[in-house]
Q: What sequence folds into this?
């Protein structure tokens, strides 16, 4: 499922634009920039995305930008920054054209979504609607917890047990439990 609403991706686009702007900072540190950028790209596109590999391959010729500046190797620095900017510009364009894709989700996110779907499959439509209302309300965590507990009690022991059983039978849960 692809979300083609650019407005929904504005926080991601803003983060990438900030990273492009950081390329022009006076005290720019390529290694720190790369680490931050890789974290952002992995969060947006998934940890196996090609753009991450490209950022990892960005290298500096010397150990610091100031050494390169003093040695007259400013053009190498500029080429590296230009390539970095192109990678992030391509990422922004991808989001704007194709939206955010669930395929970029990390495996952990996908597993959590699987578990949520298992749980939702056990609920009636009205219970799902009620759960959404509870979770999206501005009430305190304690109040939400109370209402969710009531909802589970309404399902009865049989319904609550079915939800828990289905969650525990998920392959990831089995692996996690056996590791303990």
A:
């Amino acid at each position: 499922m692809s979300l083609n609403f650019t407005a929904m991706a504005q926080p991601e686009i803003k983060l990438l634009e900030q990273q492009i702007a950081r390329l022009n900072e006076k005290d720019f540190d390529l290694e720190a920039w790369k680490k931050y950028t890789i974290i952002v790209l992995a969060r947006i596109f998934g940890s196996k995305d090609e753009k991450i590999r490209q950022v990892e391959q960005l290298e500096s010729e010397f150990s610091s930008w100031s050494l390169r500046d003093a040695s007259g190797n400013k053009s190498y620095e500029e080429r590296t920054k230009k390539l970095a900017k192109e990678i992030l510009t391509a990422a922004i364009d991808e989001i704007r054209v194709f939206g955010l894709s669930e395929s970029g989700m990390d495996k952990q996110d996908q597993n959590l979504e699987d578990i949520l779907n298992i749980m939702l499959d056990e609920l009636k439509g009205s219970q799902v609607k009620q759960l959404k209302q509870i979770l999206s309300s501005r009430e305190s965590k304690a109040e939400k917890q109370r209402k969710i507990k009531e909802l589970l009690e309404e399902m009865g022991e049989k319904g609550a047990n079915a939800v828990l059983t289905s969650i525990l039978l998920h392959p990831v849960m089995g692996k996690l439990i056996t590791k303990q």
Observations:
- Strands lie at 2-3, 100-101.
- The first strand starts at residue 2 and ends at 3.
